[in-house]
Amino acid sequence: MGQNFFCFQDPPINARRVKVTRRCPKCNFMKVTARWHPEDAKREVLEEAPTFHPTEEEFKDTLKYIASIRSTAEPYGICRIIPPLFWKPPCTLEEKNIWEFSEFVAHIQRIDGHQVQHAQETTASSSGNTKTKRRKGTPAALDSQLENEMNCTTNYQNLEDCVCESIPGPKFSLKTFKKYADEFKTQYFNNTDKNMVTDSDINLAIPQNQWEPSVEIIEGEYGRIVQNPTEEIEVLCGNTLDAVVLSSGFPTVSDDSEACTFPEYLKSGWNLNNILKLPGSLLSFESSEASRNFSPRINVGMCFSPLYWRVEEHQLYSLSYMHLGEPKVWYCVPGRFAVNFEAIRKKYLPDLCAEQPDENHNLIMQLSCSVLKAEGIPVYRCVQYPREYVLIFPGAYHSGFDCGFNCSEAVSFAPLEWLPRGQNVVDLYCEQRRKTLLSYDKLLLGAAREAARARWEVDLRMMRTPQNIASKDAYRRDGILAKALDSRIRSESLKREYLCISLKSRKMDGTFDATDKRECSICLRDLYFSAVACSCSEDKFVCPDHAKQLCSCNWSKKTLLYRYEISELNLLHQALDGKLSSVYKWAKEDLGLSMTSVAPQDRKHLAQNVSSSRPASEDLKMKESKSTTVSDADSKLKERLLQAITNASKRKQAQVESQVMGTSTDPFSSSSKMKVKENILGCQSAKTCIGGGVNSADTKTDMKTLGGGKFSISKKVEPKVTYPVSSVANSHFLTLVQEGKLVEISSDSSCTSSSSESDD
C-alpha cells in the first residue's frame, strides 16, 4: 500500500457491511463505497429546545442575559441563542495563514452500530457475557452480530467488539479537511448507482447544481448508521483542539490588526476568550494552569462526525459558537434526569460501565434516543447554524453529530448560578474518589473577596464607575454568592468544632499549596479551606472528614491547618450582606485597602492573593508596614474630617430638619427628632477608624458609637448634594455623619459585631 494512503488493513468483510476507504489529504483519489439508504431512515421525533433572540441591549451583558433565561431554558438542559443582526464577528480561522497552513491531527472514529436499542436482551445476555478486549487498530468484522441486527434481534455476546475507539489519524489544514469532508458527503448522498464508482474513477463527474440533503435527511441516515448499519463507516473529526494552538475564531489581543479593526468584538463577553474574565465568572479566580483546562476549544467536523453522550467536567456551563460551515444537530437530557440517565446506561451496558468506571461521562457505546424515551427520560433536540450559540446547562448529558464540514468553538464556564451545583459536584467527586480539575473553595472565596472589594469601592469610596457598579451588581445577584458562602462556612465550622477538641491548630503557611493543589490522600477532596497533617509525614494530608484515617499516630501529633479562621469567614459573609463596618474591616485587614488608598483594578491581584496564604509572622510584618505607611495620612485625614464635622454639623442638621420634618431649624430643639450629642468628636483612641456608606436597598447601616458619643437619626434622608469623586474621602465621610451612618471600628477588635447582629 502506498505511503500516501491512510487506511486500515482490510479485515474479512461481510457481504452486507462494506468498508469505506479513506485516503490521505494529499492524494487525488477517494472512493466512498457506502451509500445513502433513504428507505431505512431512522429519525426519532423529539421536542425542540427553546430558541432565544436577545435584543441589542440584552446582548451587552453576557452572564446577566444567561441568568435571565435560565429559569426558562434549564428544564430543557440546552437552548439556542441567535444574536442580534449586528453581531457579525470576523472569523480569524478563514485567514490564509490559518486556513491553509495551520495543521491539526484529525481523529478517526467508527460510527456504525454504536447505539444500543434493546434493554431486555442486553441485560439478559450480559450476565453470561465474557469480556473481550476492543481492538483499536483494525475494525472488527461482526458477521454474527450483523446478521442479528438485520433481523432487529441484536446478539450482545460480543458487544464490546463493535466499539472502535477514536484513534489519531492524518494531519489536515482546514482547507484540505473541508475538501475531504465535501467530497465524502457528495459521494455518499449522490451515488445511487453501485457501479458508478470504480477504482479507476479519479475525476468524478459531479453536476453543476449539486443537490444538498436536508438536515432531516442527514439525521435519518445517521440514525440508520448508528442503529442498523449495513456498512462499516469511519469518519474524521478534530474535536477539542486548543484554540491557542490552532487559533481562536474570534479576534484576540495578540492580533493587533484585528484589535484595531474590530474593537467591539475583541472586548465583547460573547467572544469566548473573554467569558472567563467577566465579573461574576468564577473560573477567573483559578490559577492560570488550572484555567487552561477550561480554555476555548475548536471543533472541526464533517458529515456524521459524532459527539457522544457526555456531561461537562464539574458539571459546568458550556457555550458553543459556530463560526462557519453546515449545521450541527444536538440532543440533550436535562440535568435533573442525569441520575436516571446513568442508571439506564448501567442497565443497558453493565459490563462496559464496569470496565470504564471513570469514563461513564463519555462512553463511546451509546444509548439511542428511542431507548431513553422508552425509559421515561426526556430528550430534546436543537439544530445549530453558523453565527449561533448553543448553551448547555450544568449536569445535562448531551450528544449530537455534524451535517457537514463546520468549525465551532466552545468553552466551559462557571457563573454564580453554578455555585449550588458546584458544591454538590465536590461531594459527588469525593464519593467517587475522582480527581478534580478545579478548587471549588478557591473559586468561592475568590468571588467573595472580589465582591467585598466592589462594595468597598462603591459603597465606601463612592467610586461609582461602570466597571465597579457592574461588578457589584454581578456578585450580589439573587444573593447566590452570600448563600453559598454561608452554607460552606456552616459546614466547615461543624467540622472544625469537632476536630479542635482533639487537635492543635494553626494557619497554613505560604508554602502549603504554593506549587501544587493539595488534595485529600483518601477522597481527593481539595484542601483549600483546611487540612489535617501529621508529623509522621510531611507531604501527606487529608480533609477533616478523614482525619482518623490519616495515620495510626496519636491525636497529639496531628494538626488542623486552616486558611482563615471561622470568625474571619463570618466577617466576609457580613460584608457580602452589605454590612458597611464589615466591608471596611475586611477591606483593611484582608485586602490591605484604606480610605486613602486606591483599590487594585486588576482582578488577577485578588486571584493571586487568594491562591496562597502567608505565614502569620509575615502577615504581622506586612500589617505593621502598611499601618506605618498610612498612619500619618489617616491621622491628618481624621483631623480635617473632625474639624469639618464641627463646623458643619449644626448647619447641616438644621437644613435636614427643615427639609424633612418641616419644623424648627434649631438642631437642639426639644421638638426635633434629630439629636446630636456634643461629644460626637470624643474619639477615645488614636486607632479609631471611620467608615460607612450611602444607604440603598441592598446596603445596611451600622448605628455605632463614635468615641463616647452617639449619632442617631430617626428617619432616612437621601442626600441632596452630589459630591465629585475626586473629593470623595472628605465629602462622603461628612455625608455618613449627616445621615447617621458613622461607624466605629477598632483595628484590634476581632469583629465589629456578632454574626447575628443586623444593620437593617
Automatic annotation (TrEMBL):
Region (Disordered): 116-142, 604-634
Gene Ontology terms describing biological process: regulation of gene expression
Family matches, as SMART domains: JmjC (SM00558), JmjN (SM00545)
Biased composition (Basic and acidic residues): 616-626
GO cellular component, one term: nucleus
InterPro entries according to UniProt: JmjC_dom, JmjN, Znf_C5HC2
Polar residues composition-biased segments: 117-130
Stored PROSITE patterns: JMJC (PS51184), JMJN (PS51183)
Domain JmjN: 49-90
Domain JmjC per the UniProt entry, residue ranges: 267-430
Any one GO MF annotation of this record: histone H3K4me/H3K4me2/H3K4me3 demethylase activity
Gene3D superfamilies associated with the record: Cupin
Protein name, UniProt field: Lysine-specific demethylase JMJ16
